[in-house]
Amino acid sequence: MATQHSKTAARLMISPAVILLFLWMIVPLSMTLYFSFLRYNLLMPGMESFTGWDNYYYFLTDPAFSAALTNTILLVVGVLVITVVGGVLLALLLDQPFWGQGIVRVLVIAPFFVMPTVSALVWKNMFMNPVNGMFAHIARGLGLQPFDFLSQAPLASIIGIVAWQWLPFATLILLTALQSLDREQMEAAEMDGASALDRFLHITVPHLTRAITVVVLIQTIFLLGVFAEILVTTNGGPGTASTNITYLVYAQSLLNYDVGGGSAGGIVAVVLANIVAIFLMRMIGKNLDA
Amino acid sequence: MGKITLRNVQKRFGEAVVIPSLDLDIEDGEFVVFVGPSGCGKSTLLRLIAGLEDVSDGQIMIDGRDATEMPPAKRGLAMVFQSYALYPHMTVKKNIAFPLRMAKMEPQEIERRVSNAAKILNLTNYLDRRPGQLSGGQRQRVAIGRAIVREPAAFLFDEPLSNLDAALRVNMRLEITELHQSLETTMIYVTHDQVEAMTMADKIVVLNAGRIEQVGSPLTLYRNPANLFVAGFIGSPKMNLIEGPEAAKHGATTIGIRPEHIDLSRETGAWQGEVGVSEHLGSDTFLHVHVAGMPTLTVRTGGEFGVHHGDRVWLTPQADKIHRFGADGKAL
C-alpha cells in the first residue's frame, strides 16, 4: 500500500473520476458566475454585454428577494421542527413492541419513496383541493366552510407537504439511534428514581443528539433546494407568498427570460447556503466529534 | 435496614417457568451471593428483587413492607449492573449525583454526599471526566459510587466483575468486601464464579434451574454439600465423584472426595493408578490419575511432588472426608 509506486498508481487511477467531478462542478459554476455579470436576456439574443454588478443590484433590491429569503428560512425551520419533534415521537412509538411491527415500519418509511412532484400533486388534488379534496369533504361533513389551503395558507401547506416527505427519514434515523440505547442504562435510571419523563429528558434525548444533528444537517441541505413541490402546487404564489430563493431564481431566468439576473440569484443562493453551512457546522457539528 | 424476604416467589416467561417457587430470607447487613451456572435464574431472581421484572406469583418483603407491586425506585435498593450502565454524556460527578438529583435533594447535600463517595472510592481526581475516559475498574467504581450515595437499604450486584481482567477482579473483590464491612449494608451479589462466592459471601445461595439447591456459609457448603450438584459446583478443582462398587463399599450410590483430601504415595495405598496430565501451578500440582474402574481422579498435592506422565502412584482417600450420596443425589 505504502510504496511510492503504489501511491502513484493509486493517484493515476483515481484521477479520471476526480477530474470529471471537478469539471462537473467548476464548469457550471464559472459559467453562472460569468453570466451573472452579463446583460443576458433570452428575448434579445446576441445582445449580451458586460454590465458589472447591475444584475446583483437588481436581484438583491427586488422586493421579491426579501420575501423569498424569509420564506426559505420559514420553510427550512418549519420542516426541521416538525420532522425532528415528530420523528422523535414516532420513533419512540415504533420502538415499543406491538403486533405487526415489521409491516408498520415499512409503511412509515413509504412516503420517502414517493417522488416530490407526485406527492405534491397528490396532496394538491386529493387532499387540499377546496372542491374535490378529502379535507374539503371532511369540512363539509362537519358542516364547515372548506378551507382553500394553497391560496389561503400557501407556505404553511407547502411546509406540511415537505414535512410529510421528510418525516420518515427523520423517524428512520432516530429509530435506529433509539435501538442502540443500552437497556441497562434505562434500568439504572429507573432504579435511580427517574420518572418516565426524566428518563426521556436525561437519558434518551442526550443519546439522540448525534442522530438529531445528522437529521438537521442532511435535511437542511435538501430543504434549501425545495423546488418541485412549489412548482406543481402554488407556482410560488399567490404573489410571492410561497416563493423561496430556488423558485425565485427559476422565475427570474426562465419566466422572465433574464439569464443574467437568474445567474446572479444563483450565486447569491450559493453564498447563502455556504453561510448556513458554516453556522450549522459551528453550532452542531461539534456533536459529531468523538 | 435491609431485611429482604421472598415468599413463594415464582417467575414465568410465557410457558417457560424460570423460577418454580422459591423462599429465601436475607438478614440485615448480610453479604449474600447467588451462585449457579449460566441460565440458572440467578440474574432473574436479582431483577425480581430489584423490581425490574414483575413476579408471576408470590411476595417480596423489604423491611417488613410488601414490595411486590412497588416500582423499583420506591424499594430503596441500589443496583450495580454488569455493563456498569453509566450515563455516557454525564461527567463522573453528574453520574454519581443523578439519583440524588432525581430525589430533588438540596444541592449542598448532593455536593457533600458525592465528594464523600468519591473519597471512599478514590475517584476525587476523576470527577470531571466522562465515563468514556475511564478504565474498566474506574467505571466500576463510579457505578458503585452511584449506588452508595443513595444510602440504600441493600445493594444489588449483577456480575459486576465479569468485564474486568483477572488481576483487577481480585482487587475489586477485596474492595467490595471492605466496602461491605465499613457500610454494614445488606448486599446481594450474583456471580457464576464460585471463587468470588467463596471469598466474599456471608451466605451463599446455590441455584440450579431456578431452584435453591442449598443455602449456607461458604464453609458449610464446602464441608457438607447437601447434594451432588452443590458438591460438584463448590470447590476448585471439582470434587471427584465415584459411582459403582467403590461407592457401594461405603453404602452409597455415589461417593465424593475432594482433590485435596486424597493422600498420594509411591509405595502403598487404597487405589493404584497411572498419572495422566499433571498441572504444575508452583504452589500446587494437580494430577489427573487414571484408576481402573473409576473416572479420572483429580488429586491435589504439593508443588514439589515430582511425577511424570505414566508413573504409577497409590491414592488413599481420607476416610472422614468422604461424602456419601444416595440414589436421589442427596447427601446421606
Automatic annotation (TrEMBL), chain A:
Cell location: Cell membrane
Domain of life: Bacteria
Transmembrane segments: 12-37, 73-94, 106-123, 155-178, 208-228, 264-284
Main localization, broad class: membrane
CDD domains: TM_PBP2 (cd06261)
Keywords, in A-Z order: Cell membrane, Membrane, Transmembrane, Transmembrane helix, Transport
Keyword Transport: yes
Pfam family, one: BPD_transp_1
Entry membrane topology: Multi-pass membrane protein
Positions of the ABC transmembrane type-1 domain: 69-280
Secretion signal span: none
Record-stated family: Belongs to the binding-protein-dependent transport system permease family.
Name of the protein this chain belongs to: Sorbitol ABC transporter membrane protein /mannitol ABC transporter membrane protein
Organism: Cereibacter johrii
UniProtKB/TrEMBL annotation, chain B:
SUPFAM superfamilies cross-referenced by the UniProt entry: MOP-like (SSF50331), P-loop containing nucleoside triphosphate hydrolases (SSF52540)
GO molecular function list: ATP binding
Identification of the protein by name: Sorbitol ABC transporter ATP-binding protein /mannitol ABC transporter ATP-binding protein
Segments forming domain ABC transporter: 4-234
Keywords, sorted A to Z: ATP-binding, Nucleotide-binding, Transport
InterPro entries named among the record's database cross-references: AAA+_ATPase, ABC_transporter-like_ATP-bd, ABC_transporter-like_CS, ABC_transpr_MalK-like, ABC_transpr_MalK/UgpC-like, Mo/tungstate-bd_C_term_dom, NA-bd_OB-fold, P-loop_NTPase
Superkingdom of the source species: Bacteria
Tagged with keyword Nucleotide-binding: yes
One Pfam family in the UniProt entry: TOBE_2
UniProt keyword ATP-binding present: yes
Family: Belongs to the ABC transporter superfamily.
Taxonomic lineage of the native organism: Bacteria, Pseudomonadati, Pseudomonadota, Alphaproteobacteria, Rhodobacterales
